[in-house]
Each structure stands twice: as C-alpha cells, then as structure tokens.
Amino acid sequence: MTNTPLTGGRFDRRGFLKTGAAALAATGLARPALAQSRTIKIGMVMPQTGPLAFFSEHVEFVLNQMQKATGGVLNIDGRQIAYEILLRDSQSNPNRASEVASELILDQEVDLIIAAATPETTVPVSDMCELNGIPCVTNDTPIEPYFFARGGDPDVGFEWTNHYFFSGQQSAGTLLKMFGQIESNKMVGALWPNDGDGNAFAEAYPPLFDSLGYGLSDPGRFDMPLSSYAAAVSQFKADEVELIYGVIPPPEFTTFWNEAAQQKFQPKAVYAGKTVQFPAALEPFGARAEGLVTEVWWAPVYPYASTITGQTAKELADEYEAVSGRQWSMPLGFRHSIFEVIFDGLKRAQDLDDPASIQEAFNTTDLTTVCGPIDFRTGPFPNTCTTPTAGGQWVKGEKYPLDLVICDNLTAPEVEIERQVQPLTY
Fold first, then answer.
1. Which pTM value belongs to this model?
2. CA-based radius of gyration for the chain
3. For this UniProt entry, which segments traverse the membrane (predicted)?
4. What number of helices (H) and strands (E) belong to the chain?
5. pLDDT of res. 168
6. 3-state SS record for 252-273
7. Please, what is the angle between helix 313-324 and helix 331-348, to 10°?
C-alpha cells in the first residue's frame, strides 16, 4: 500500500499528484495532458482593501478582459481547456496573504497561484507556494526585496516561484539620474520603513549613494502607520536635504507631505514609491503633486503589445479609461501581462496534471508582453527577470489633473524621452 506523502506534517499535494499519475500510468489510463473534464484552477492574491488597494484597481477590468478574449477556455493542442480564477484579498496584510494562499492550495487545490503588489503580498504568497510545491508567478515588487526577504540564495534560487519587475539597481539608477538633472546639493532624505522594501533599500542604497557623491539623512526604520513624520521632517531640514527618496503608501505620504508643508520644508525633488505611481493617490494634493518623480514600470508610450488581445500599450490604457472612467496607472500593464505569462506557460506545459511540468514551462518563458520581454532565464536571480523601466515626472494634465512625462530611459532605451526633470515649485 502506498503511503500518503507528507511535507512538514502537511498533505503533500505535489507528491500525491505524482504518485497518482504513476498509478494511472500503471493501469494504462494515463493521458498525455489534462483531462478535458477538469478545469484549471488559478489562485490570485491581491491587496483589494487596505493601504495598498490602489495596486488592485485594475483587477476587475483585466479579469473581464481575459473572459472576453478567451471565453474562459484555453486552446491547448487543439483542445478547449476551461480555467477558473479564484481571487482572494490579502487586505494589504502579509499574514492574511499567507492565509489565503494556504487556503487556495489546501482547500481549493489550485494548480497555480499568481500574486502582485509589494513584498507584503508577493513574499508570503511565494513562500507558501514554495512550501507546498505549487507553481507561482508574481510581479510588481522590486526583485531584491522579493528575493532576499525570502532568504534567497543567488546561487540556488527557488524551485516553485517566478518573478518579474524592475530591480533596485534599475530604480536607483533611474531616480538618481533624474535627481542629477536638477541642480542640488545632492543631499538625500530617506523614508524607509520597517518592511520588506524599506529594509532592502536601507541595506543596498547607502553604499550606492556614497559612491555617486550623494549624502544621506536617514531617520531610521519605522513601523507604519506612523502618526507623525514631524521628527523626520525636522531632521531633513537640519541636514539641508534637497532630495527625498522614500517608499511609503498613500496614507503615509499624505501625513509626511502635509507636515513638510507645515514646517515649510521644500525639497527640490521627491520620490515616494508605493504612492507616486498612482495619479488617484496624488490628485488630492492638487498643484503640490506636480513635479513629483517616479520610476515608470509601464506607460501607454511603451512600444509593446499584448499577446492575448493584440492591443498596444496605448490601446490597453485607452480601453481601461473608457470602461472604468479612471486614469490609467502603471500596475495596469502588469495585471494584464501576468495572464500573458501564465497562459503562455500553460499552453507549453507537457502535462497539466503535473505541477513540475507547469513549473518547467514557466521557467522557460521567452515572451514579449505588453510590459516588455519576459525571460526567467535572464536573472538577476534564478527564475526572475527585469522589465524595462523608465523615469518620469508628474505635470499639470489636460484630460486629467496630472499627466506623466518620460524624463529618463536609462534602462528602457526603446521609450522616448519627452522632457527634462524640473525642480519642484512652491
């Protein structure tokens, strides 16, 4: 009698599937791919509520796009294979992200999981998939926080998880190049919290700043929510900071930016990751949002098209605005492209009943999506890859209150520069 395989005292679904497949093969009932009657189950974890909810504003639109484009089925080797997407809310909480990922794996028995939006989502979900031997594809987290927050070894990597987005080196290079376009004393104020992004930035960036001749004023790690940033603002003023490099979500940036105005702290350039990528998060500031800078992961000017709908980046953004009544923002391209990646992999998998076969297909992805080329063999770490990343600045808009213009293309040379960075005005 075959024992039920276990991992760490838990039911090992991967081992069960392999054992079951072997048993079927022995009886002559095995099929070369997925049985037509079974539906592929895709788990999806996103922060739909909480401070990171801006990252999920495109999810419903993209899910509707997928349904319209595919009818809920994938054409695999001439057969119509149905798929189902099980969406779960992480509530912007890493513990909750881990819980719902576990439920999707153990209770819903999904075949794979996709997730996005900061280390607070992608790290716990990826870890849960790694533990249970379930293929996982994630994006929208800088690669270093994603990898090192999980204890990753660059020489080994992970077996069951794939990730694509910009790297910290790309982001820092782009932002510092934009900082360099304006005249300043090169004194940077850091707003790096006690979380995956903040800790990674605090470890990696000071040596880089020093090597490029930038000074650093760092008030230290802090837990969020933080009721007041007055102490940080006071330190920045005392240190004559003229450039802000932060990574805090919209509620935190609102507190900081309002207290900066109260203390008449007027830096020449400000970057706040997790906030400045979203026009809806910046609109409440009115003219005080004009001039904020950001790395640009994706925009309508990107010269790529979807492998699912055939839409160019601009056509995708235009459709989103027409359907939702909201302005496009960067995560739209990544919400769409993650389905390009997994659908491509599922179509190439040799055996859809074998998680290892699906994982192998993901590992060998070589696909140009609406966000750009995705090839997990290119690194910088095993089963990861970087995507083109430009730099931009928010300016007074025409159709919407704010428009984003491209100011740097250091790591996205195919994206055209539209103007030079201008210092903030007060």
1. 0.89
2. 22
3. none
4. 13, 18
5. 87
6. HHHHHHHHHHHCCCCCCEEEEE
7. 120
